[in-house]
Amino acid sequence: AFYKLYFPENRIKIADTGHYVGTNEELGEVLLRIKEFGSIPFVISPEQSTSYQLYKIYCLREDTVNFVSVDEKPDLGEHNDLCGEENWLTHIIGHTPNYLFNYSLMGFQQYLSNTNQIKALQDFHFDLLRLGQIRNNIGSTEPILRNADFFCFDISSVRASDCPGAFKSGPNGLYAEEACQIIRYAGLSNKVSSGLLCGWSSSLLDSITPQLLAQLIWHFVEGLSNRTSDGKVGNENEYTIYKVSSTEVEEELVFFKNNRNGRWWMNVPSHNRSHGKPIRYHMVPCNYEDYQQAMKGEIPDTWWNTYQKLS
Questions:
Q1: How much is the pTM?
Q2: I want to staple 154 with a disulfide (CB 3.0 to 4.6 A). Which of 8, 105, 171, 199 is the partner?
Q3: Parallel, antiparallel, or unpaired: how do β-strands 253-258 and 264-269 relate?
C-alpha cells in the first residue's frame, strides 16, 4: 500500500530494511547501529511493547529522553519480568538507570483510562492530552512532538470506522486525517530521531487499515522532507522576544518567536540556586496559546511541569 503512493515532493533517501526476525533484546542493538549511520529508524510492528526497545537505544547512549506516545489509554500495568502490551510503559518509567526526562501521552480517552494511572502520570509532571483537547486544537500536539526524541503511534487511538484492523479498536478516537497530521508533526520535528507505528491485529484483515498505515508512514516521511532549522533558539537576530511578568513565580516568563517559521519557544529556569551558581534555563517548545495564557496571568502547564522536573 505504501509503494502505491507518490513520493513527497522534497525527495529524501529511504532504506527498506525488510522484516526483522531476531529477538527483542537484539532489536535495540540493531536500531542503534542504524542510528549510528545517521539514519532515523522507523519501526512498523503490531506490538507497542517495542517502544521499550527503542527507549533502550537512548539508555545505551546515556541520553536524556523525551518520549511521546499516541494511545487510547496509558499502559501502566503491573511490573513483572515480561514486558508486554499492558505494562511496557511501566518498564520504561521503572528502567534503571532512568534517562526519561519527560513522557507525553496524547489522544487518551478518559473513560478507558485507569484514574490511578492518570494520577500517577500527573504526579510525575508528565504531559497529558485527552482526545477532546486534540479535537479542539490539534496544533497543541506540535510543540510536544517538537520536543520529543522518539515517539510511538498506536493505531488503536484511531476510531474503528477509520481503522477497523486496530488491536483494540473502539467507536471513538482520532479521525484518520488527525492521525496523519499528528505523525507529520513528528516528522517535522528536528529532534525526533526514531519512531514506532504499532497496534494492529494480524488476524483482522481488511482493506482500510493497510492503507491508513501506509498513509501514516507517508506523512511522517513528508514531514521529514520538510524539516527546517530553528537556528539558535533565542538569538535576537532570528527571534522576537516577549517577556511577561507573573505574580505566581519570581522570574519573568520569556517567550521566543522564530521570525522565519513562526515557531514559539519559552525558557524555563532551574530554581536550584545553591552555592551561588547562576540560574540555568531550559528551552522548551510551546505555541502562541501558551503566550496568550501567560498574558492573562496564568502559568502554562508545559512551563510549570518542566519547572517542577528541573527542581
A1: 0.94
A2: 199
A3: antiparallel
User: Max CA-CA distance within the chain?
Assistant: 64
DSSP, res 268: E
pLDDT one-digit tens code per residue, 267-300: 998 765 554 555 678 899 999 999 999 999 999 9
Closest CA to 186 of 194, 177, 175: 194
Q: What is the pLDDT of residues 244-257, one digit of tens each?
A: 998 888 888 999 99
- E-strand spans in 115-238? 127-130, 150-154, 194-198
SS3 (DSSP) at 75: coil
Residue labelled with grid coordinates 516577549 = 242
CA angle (305, 91, 201) in 5-degree steps: 105
Return d(Cα 298, Cα 309) in angstroms, integer: 19
Q: What's the order of all strands across the beta sheet hosting 65-70?
A: 42-44, 194-198, 150-154, 65-70, 100-108, 127-130
CB 96 within 8 A of CB 107: no
Residue 248's Cβ-count burial label (10 Å; 0-12, 13-18, 19+) is exposed
Which is it for strands 264-269 and 281-286: parallel, antiparallel or unpaired?
antiparallel
Q: How far apart are CA 131 and CA 109, in angstroms?
A: 6
